[in-house]
Design goal:
There is one protein chain. This protein has 462 residues and is of the alpha+beta class. It folds into two domains: 217 residues, no CATH class; 178 residues, Schlafen, AAA domain (Methyltransferase, Cobalt-precorrin-4 Transmethylase, Domain 2), CATH 3.30.950.30.
């Protein structure tokens, strides 16, 4: 019963490890899929709000868009030519390098009209290692607009560091601004300013981009084209969302599942290792022969064929080896049969067995031994359950049979055709009657098989 329970525990541990790992992977995939779908829906909704607010109908009429206050999300809105129309919740790195598409003089406010039809009052304020661009759309500008523009420019200081450190809440509300470094990279912006970027690559429809990592944060990005009445792209909305926290949660889930799966697999592998060590650790080596005695795992046989009493080769001697091998197959942990060693551990060798063979050497001995095993147990069991090797002790050959436990009960045919089950009890191989055989088989093979868990015990011969 203990053996069956041990097999059951090992099988359950292995099955649990496989199922838990599969469940953990499925959980991670499901969470990742759900988060991606939610993020995509949010981005698509935001992009549609911007597109609807732009309301492009043959030409840019942005006054309605500028008055719209219900557009949500973080996005970059630009024309097909690359002119920036709006940046909301600006993130450095999401906008490529830009330029000022108008001639200008430093700290000299000037008027200009963008290629999307908006007129601006602009000022370019140089700082060390960069520029600050300021402006207000023309329309209802106050009479002191230029003076307010110059005053605001001074708030940004004289260096790029000072410009970036300027607090947005202290900037005149009527003024848009953008801070650029010396390479024309947009670093900071509260901007509807008509700066010019490279003309964007227009997708044919909403296109999700790979997650971008910027300043140790991760952003999901969607590009959605704005089309004219005939389906030509005239603008692009790039919507983005900070998904750092979602990825952090996924990473924590993955780390937790990996840690728990590792523990589960460690337990399963440990149990399997114990099983393997128990089975294969019971196999005897040539070096160990002189140090062991007969036991429930070791049997000594003086010969394979030679009967020392009758001074001749007999089938009865062969059957004694078959009986020992069968008993070890029926045991839970197998065992070893040493041929050429008497019960008193005297090394008698295989010479008298060799003398009965046509080929009087190890090869001839192994051939006849294999024939005996195949005839008694069948080719499958003889090949998979019995490992044959030879040793030399005191100048004499010994044959070592290491026997693995069988996966089903093993019966051997005795004289007269009687089928008998042999089991190992102590240091002897004992025959069981029918009642004992069924009881032993029920206990020995009642557990789940590691190889074929739902397989029922079946008596097999040969």
């Amino acid at each position: 019963m203990a053996t069956s329970l041990g097999r059951l525990v090992r099988t359950v541990a292995l099955a649990f490890a496989v199922l838990f790992t599969a469940a953990s992977a499925a959980q991670y995939w499901f969470l990742n899929h759900q988060l991606q779908e939610e993020t995509r829906e949010d981005l698509l909704d935001s992009a549609k709000e911007v597109t609807d607010a732009a309301d492009y109908k043959g030409s840019w009429e942005l006054s309605g868009y500028r008055r719209t206050s219900d557009v949500s999300g973080s996005y970059i809105f630009q024309s097909a030519s690359g002119t920036l129309i709006d940046t909301v919740d600006f993130v450095p790195g999401l906008v490529p390098s830009v330029s000022i598409p108008f001639p200008y003089q430093a700290d000299q406010p000037f008027t200009a009209k963008s290629d999307v039809g908006e007129s601006w009052l602009l000022d370019v304020h140089p700082v060390t290692d960069g520029l600050v661009v300021l402006g207000s759309r023309e329309g209802d500008l106050p009479s002191d607009a230029e003076a307010r523009l110059r005053a605001t420019a001074k708030q940004f200081g004289t260096t790029l560091k000072e410009a970036l450190a300027t607090k947005e809440r202290g900037i005149d509300e009527m003024i848009e601004f953008a801070v650029l470094d010396s390479n024309w990279n947009l670093l900071s912006s509260r901007s509807e300013l008509p700066l010019k970027a490279h003309a964007p690559v227009m997708p044919t429809g909403p296109a999700f981009q790979p997650v971008r990592e910027i300043n140790e944060k991760k952003f999901a990005v969607l590009d959605d084209p704005i089309l004219d009445t005939v389906g030509r792209p005239v603008g692009l909305v790039t919507v983005f969302e900070d998904v750092t926290s979602q990825h952090s949660v996924l990473s924590q889930v993955a780390r937790f599942n990996i840690a728990v799966s590792s523990v589960v697999w460690l337990v399963a592998i440990s149990l399997l290792s114990l099983y393997v060590r128990r089975i294969y650790g019971s196999q005897l080596s040539c070096a160990q022969i002189v140090g062991v005695d007969e036991s429930d795992r070791v049997e000594f046989k003086a010969s394979l064929r030679w009967d020392y009493g009758q001074k001749a080769a007999t089938k009865n001697i062969e059957f004694q080896v078959i009986k020992a091998v069968a008993a070890f197959m029926n045991s839970a942990s197998g065992g070893s049969v040493v041929i050429g060693l008497s019960d008193q551990k005297h090394v008698v060798g295989l010479e008298l067995d060799y003398a009965t063979l046509k080929r009087k050497d190890r090869d001839g001995f192994q051939q006849i031994l294999q024939a005996i095993l195949v005839d008694a147990f069948g080719e499958r069991r003889a090949a998979s359950r019995v490992k044959v090797s030879f040793c030399s002790i005191e100048g004499k050959d010994l044959c070592l049979l290491n026997v693995l436990p069988a996966r089903e009960p093993v019966l051997v045919e005795e004289a007269g055709g009687k089928m008998t089950m042999y089991v190992r009890i102590g240091n002897t191989s004992r025959a069981l009657n029918m009642r004992e055989a069924f009881a032993y088989a029920s206990e020995r093979w009642s557990g789940l098989s590691l190889r074929w868990p739902w397989r029922k015990p079946s008596f097999g011969v040969g």
